[in-house]
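pls read this protein.

:::
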Amino acid sequence: MLTLKFAEIDLIKAQTGETPVLLLDDVFSELDDARQRILFKEIAGIQTFITTTHEAFLDVVEGEKIIYKVKEGEIIKS
């Protein structure tokens, strides 16, 4: 599925000249540590929104990141 998403990004970028926003919903629970690091290298330079139930998955993210948490129905910027 991730390969298809990256192919779609390449296609959209080639046709429009703009890089689309990437949405990833809880992908890290399906990937081991090595594949998580590979994924983060691949998304460098792509604006990405990631949902996860385990904030620790985001520890391997290098570079700029903003983390929002939803607690009791409220969005909190970390």
In short: The helical segments are 2-16, 33-42.
